[in-house]
Automatic annotation (TrEMBL):
Keywords: Pyridoxal phosphate. This is dTDP-4-amino-4,6-dideoxygalactose transaminase. GO terms for molecular function: pyridoxal phosphate binding; transaminase activity. Belongs to the DegT/DnrJ/EryC1 family. The modification N6-(pyridoxal phosphate)lysine is found at residue 182. The active site is at residue 182. It comes from Kitasatospora gansuensis.
C-alpha cells in the first residue's frame, strides 16, 4: 500500500485544475489582484451557501475571528467564553481583539463546548467552536446568551448543519478559515466572516481594509486583511464541488464506523443528535498508549495525526490565564487520547480497510 496522507490536496486540485488555471489566466490578464470581481462573486456565493446575506473575505481564519469580535465594539477586557478544546487560534483572536478569553470545558462525548460549564462563567460574549465537522449545541448557547453576542468559529464545519440550519447562520457573526486542509481550502491562507447584518458586515469590511470605507479616510482602527483575487478563484471552483465532497466524507466516515466497530481499546467519534456532520476530521480516541498506536500507523505509511496534543490553557503563551493542569479534565483527557485518521473525499475503500487492519493490529499488540 502506498503512503496514505491525512489529507490529499493533490487529488482535490486535479478536480478543479482546469477551472483554476482559466481563472488565474483571467486575473493575470486583468491585473485585478486585490478586490477583483472574483472576490465579489465568491463572497456572494459563500454567503448564499452559508444561509446568510453577507460574507467578507479575509486573509486568514484567525483574522476573521478577530475582525468579527472587533465589529461588536465590546469594551477592552470584555470576557469571551470559548471551549478549552480548540485550536489555539480561537483564543489568540480574542486576545488580539483586546478581550479576555474565558475557557470552559467540553462535553465528554462530542467534545464540544458544554453549555452547563459555559453557564457557570461570567460572560460578555460567547464564541462556540464547531469541531471536527459538526456544530456546537447552538440553540443552548443562544438561550444561555440571553441577547449577549454569539460568534461562531466555523473553521471546521463548512457545509454542516444543525437541525437543518447551516454553520454560520446561528450567531450574530461567524468566522471561518480556508486553510488548505479545510473542507473548503484555498491554495494558501484565506478566511471569511459571514453575517446577516448589513451594519456588521460593513464594519468588518472596514476593519480589514485599514479601518477605511473611503480611500485615505480611516474612520476606525483597522489593519490589512483581505482575500486576494487568486485565492477567490480557487475557492469559487472548490465551492462548486464542496457539497459532493462532503457527501464523500460522510460515506468514508460511515465506512470507518463499520470497519472499526467493536475494536477493543478504541472509542469512535460521536455525532450530536440534530447534526449533519461534514467530517473535517475523523478523530477516534485511544485511552491507552495512544502515541505508540500513532507510531505504528506512521510506520505503515498512514498519515494519522493528533488534534490537539497540548490544550490552550497549558500552552506557555496562555499561562497567565491561571489554569493549571487539571482545570479542564475532559479537554485534557481528550488531548491524551485523540487520534485523527486520514479522511478526505478521495479516500478509497481499500485504503480504509488497510488503515483499519493496521490500527486493529497495533491495538492488539499494545
Amino acid at each position: 500500500m502506498n503512503p496514505i496522507p491525512l489529507v490529499d490536496l493533490q487529488a482535490a486540485h486535479a478536480e478543479v485544475a482546469e477551472e483554476v488555471r482559466a481563472g488565474f489566466d483571467r486575473v493575470l490578464t486583468s491585473g485585478a489582484y486585490i478586490k477583483g470581481p472574483d472576490v465579489t462573486a465568491f463572497e456572494a456565493e459563500y454567503a448564499a451557501f452559508s444561509g446568510v446575506s453577507h460574507a467578507i473575505g479575509t486573509a486568514n481564519g484567525t483574522d476573521a475571528i478577530e475582525m468579527a469580535l472587533r465589529a461588536l465594539e465590546l469594551p477592552v477586557g470584555a470576557r469571551v467564553v470559548l471551549p478549552a478544546n480548540t485550536f489555539v487560534a480561537t483564543a489568540e483572536a480574542v486576545v488580539r481583539a483586546g478581550l479576555y478569553p474565558v475557557l470552559v470545558d467540553v462535553d465528554p462525548d462530542a467534545l464540544l463546548i458544554d453549555p452547563a460549564r459555559a453557564a457557570e462563567a461570567a460572560a460578555d460574549a460567547y464564541l462556540p467552536v464547531h469541531l471536527n465537522g459538526q456544530l456546537a449545541p447552538m440553540e443552548h448557547i443562544l438561550e444561555l446568551a440571553e441577547g449577549r453576542p454569539v460568534i461562531e468559529d466555523g473553521a471546521q464545519s463548512q457545509g454542516a448543519t444543525r437541525h437543518g440550519r447551516p454553520s454560520g447562520s446561528w450567531g450574530l457573526l461567524a468566522a471561518t478559515s480556508f486553510y488548505p486542509g479545510k473542507n473548503l481550502g484555498a491554495y494558501g491562507d484565506a478566511g471569511a466572516v459571514v453575517t446577516d447584518s448589513a451594519e456588521l458586515a460593513s464594519l468588518v469590511r472596514e476593519i480589514g481594509d485599514h479601518g477605511s470605507s473611503q480611500k485615505y479616510v480611516h474612520e476606525r482602527f483597522g489593519f490589512n486583511s483581505r482575500l486576494d483575487t487568486l485565492q477567490a478563484v480557487v475557492l469559487r471552483a472548490k465551492l462548486r464541488h464542496l457539497p459532493g465532497w462532503n457527501v464523500a466524507r460522510r460515506a468514508a466516515a460511515a465506512r470507518y464506523q463499520l470497519l472499526l466497530a467493536g475494536l477493543p481499546g478504541l472509542t469512535l467519534p460521536v455525532t450530536l443528535p440534530g447534526n449533519e456532520h461534514v467530517w473535517h476530521l475523523y478523530a477516534v480516541r485511544v485511552p491507552h498508549a495512544r502515541d505508540e498506536v500513532l507510531a505504528a500507523l506512521h510506520a505503515a505509511g498512514i498519515g494519522a495525526g493528533i488534534h490537539y496534543p497540548v490544550p490552550v490553557h497549558l500552552q506557555p503563551a496562555f499561562q497567565y490565564l491561571g489554569h493549571p493542569e487539571g482545570s479542564f479534565p475532559v479537554t485534557e483527557r481528550a488531548a491524551r487520547e485523540i487520534l485523527t485518521l486520514p479522511l478526505h473525499p478521495h479516500l478509497t475503500e481499500d485504503q480504509q480497510i488497510f488503515i483499519a487492519e493496521t490500527l486493529a493490529k497495533a491495538l492488539a499488540r499494545i
